[in-house]
Specification:
By secondary structure, the protein is α/β, with parallel strands linked by helices. Helices cover 40% and strands 15% of the residues. Strands 2-8-7-6-5-3-4 form a 7-stranded mixed beta sheet, sandwiched between helices. A 5-stranded mixed beta sheet has the order 1-11-12-10-9. The chain is globular, with a radius of gyration of 21 Å.
């Protein structure tokens, strides 16, 4: 017998759960793309997106996923032959580096491993050695979705400023926007990329590049017609927002999602909700790992953990077994371990991830944790007691 029938719960680190309100907003005939309500709605979307990003700068919207946002940011800032410093704390900054490689840039990657944040001393050394200022951009991620590490974006900016280095500072916030606190202007970020399917609670398909005047003034002449951010950020005609036909139904869903963020009390209230729910999840994970329990979080320091996703490991192949059990028997889908081990490697079955981002509340999290514990009991996976009580205590104190 399976107890999976009923509404499934997708607890992966994106696409996140889409609210019914977002889905209902999209469930309508195609609107007029030349004039009227859609045109006016998009004009209102732009300042609301900037408010979530905490910027007074510009935003370009692309019909793409996060990889498209990577390419848009790279294409508009870096010309072939120019040098980029990539600060990697997992799979995703390294992946963005590959995009720079493909447009002909010269990338220098500093790999900080899978269990730690960016080491500021190593960044300072690399930039100090660049006496001729050949490095045109410093690139990193706020939250790496594969490792669940959260980097100190303001501190990295401090190193760049300390040395007076003129490189653009570019940050991937695909996993963290509208989940973890991010202050684009206050933290001195020149270019930020994001996507619709995580904290913004909208189906995959929209990519965003936010950029300030410094970045706009450095625009590479090699940017192609489609990726060029200038007409998207300052359109003379409506179609220029999107380089062609508007992604009508994604925009309707995004409008509903931004309204929900505003009604919750704004992005600061959203940050606070995610912080509490993340602490509740961590309390459960820590309890399961005690007293001979096998469960371990990838990032041990709470200050360095993302509020969007937690990367976890179990012994042997228990990570894969647990994922399969909770999906088949209880309708809960957990995230695969991504980038922690090579596919087919002996330890690949250890890793999995729990997404706790976007449209999530206390009962959704507690239900997911309860099902995970049921799976560990059913599979005979050693785990410490008191996890659900520990999570409930965090929620009760909120």
């Amino acid at each position: 017998m399976t107890l999976a029938h009923g509404r499934p719960y997708l607890a992966i680190p994106g696409p996140s759960v889409m609210p019914d309100r977002v889905l209902n907003a999209m469930h309508q005939p195609a609107p007029n793309i030349y004039e009227g309500a859609l045109v006016e709605m998009v004009r209102g979307l732009v300042p609301d997106l900037k408010a979530v990003a905490r910027t007074d700068g510009h935003v370009a919207i692309y019909v793409s996923n996060g990889h498209g946002a990577w390419e848009a940011a790279a294409s508009n800032t870096i010309a072939p032959g120019e040098k980029v410093l990539v600060l990697s704390t997992g799979r995703f900054a390294a992946g963005w580096g590959v995009v720079f490689d493909r447009i002909g840039a010269k990338t220098e990657v500093i790999d900080f491993g899978k269990h730690a944040t960016v080491d500021l001393a190593r960044v300072e050394a690399a930039l100090a050695a660049d006496a001729e200022h050949e490095i045109k951009a410093v690139v990193t991620v706020h939250v790496d979705t594969s490792t669940s590490v959260k980097n100190d974006i303001a501190a990295i900016r401090g190193v760049i400023d300390k040395l007076g280095h003129p490189a653009l500072y570019m940050v991937d916030c695909i996993a963290s926007l509208a989940v973890d606190r991010f202050e684009m202007d206050a933290w001195g970020v020149d270019v930020m990329v994001a996507a619709s399917q995580k904290g913004l609670m909208t189906p995959p398909g929209l990519g965003f590049v936010f950029f300030n005047d410094k970045a706009a003034g450095r625009q590479a002449k090699t940017a192609s017609f489609y990726w060029d951010w200038a007409p998207r950020a300052n359109p003379e005609m409506f179609y220029q927002y999107f380089g062609g036909t508007a992604p009508t139904h994604h925009l309707l869903g995004l409008r509903a999602a931004l309204d929900m963020i505003a009604e919750e009390g704004g992005v600061e209230a959203v940050w606070a909700r995610h912080a509490t729910l993340a602490r509740a999840a961590w309390a459960a994970f820590e309890a399961w790992g005690q007293g001979g329990g096998e469960l371990e979080m990838n990032i041990s320091d709470t200050a360095l953990r993302s509020h969007a996703v937690t990367a976890l490991r179990l012994a042997g192949d228990h990570g894969t077994r647990l994922r399969q059990w909770v999906e088949q028997n209880a309708g809960l889908t957990l995230g695969i371990g991504l980038g922690m081990a090579e596919p087919g490697a002996p330890d690949a079955g250890r890793y999995f991830r729990v997404g706790h981002m976007g449209h999530i509340n206390a009962h959704m999290l507690m239900g997911a944790l309860g099902v995970m514990e049921a799976g560990m009991v059913a599979l005979g996976i050693p785990h410490g007691p008191g996890a659900l009580a520990a999570a409930a205590a965090v929620i009760a104190e909120a």
